[in-house]
Amino acid sequence: MKRILIVDDDKDLLYNLEHILSKKGYEIFTAANGEDAITSLTDIRPDLVLLDIHAGKMDGPQVCMLVKANPLTNHTPVILISADIGNKEIRKICKADDFIEKPFKLALLFLKISALIG
Fold first, then answer.
1. Which residues contact 12 (CB under 8 A, 6 or more apart)?
2. Eight-state DSSP code of residue 28
3. Burial class, 68, CB count within 10 angstroms (exposed 0-12 / middle 13-18 / buried 19+)
4. Closest-CA residue to 53 (of 63, 66, 40, 42)
5. Which pLDDT score is estimated for 83?
6. What domains can you pick out in the chain, each with its CATH number?
7. Looking at residue 73, what DSSP letter applies?
8. Which segments of 1-118 are extended strands (E)?
C-alpha cells in the first residue's frame, strides 16, 4: 500500500483528503505543520508528500527543500498545493515534483498522484 503524507494547517482539508485518499487505497498520514512533517518523515517513509505552501510553523518550500536535501527522502515526490497561483514558481526553487492550485478538482489530484506513485 502506497503511503502519502499530507501537510496542511487546514484541519477540514486534512480530514477530507485523508478520508478520500484512504478510500482510494492509500495509507494516509497527516501533519498540521511543517515541523511535524519533518519530525515524522523518516519514520513514516511516505511514497509521496502533499504539501501546502503555507504549512504553519515551517512553510512548505522549507519542508520541500529539506525533503529533497536529505539522502533518505530525496527520492520522495512532493506536490505543492496553494491557493495563490503566484506560488507556482516556488516549485522550481524547492525542486517540488508538481503543483496544484487550490481549490482543486479531485480528479486532477488523483491524476497527479497516480502519475508520481501509481
1. none
2. E
3. middle
4. 63
5. 84
6. 3-117 (3.40.50.2300)
7. T
8. 3-7, 27-31, 48-52, 78-82, 98-101
Distance CA 118, CA 109 (A): 12
Give me the tens of pLDDT residue by residue for the chain, a chain 118 residues long: 999 999 999 999 999 999 999 999 999 999 999 999 999 898 999 999 999 998 777 888 899 999 999 999 999 999 999 887 666 677 777 899 999 998 899 999 999 999 999 8
Q: Is the pTM of this model over 0.90?
A: yes
Q: Rounded CA gap, 33 and 7, in Å?
A: 6
Beta-carbon-side half-sphere exposure of residue 41 (alpha carbons within 13 Å): 27
Whole-angstrom Cα distance, residue 26 to residue 91? 24
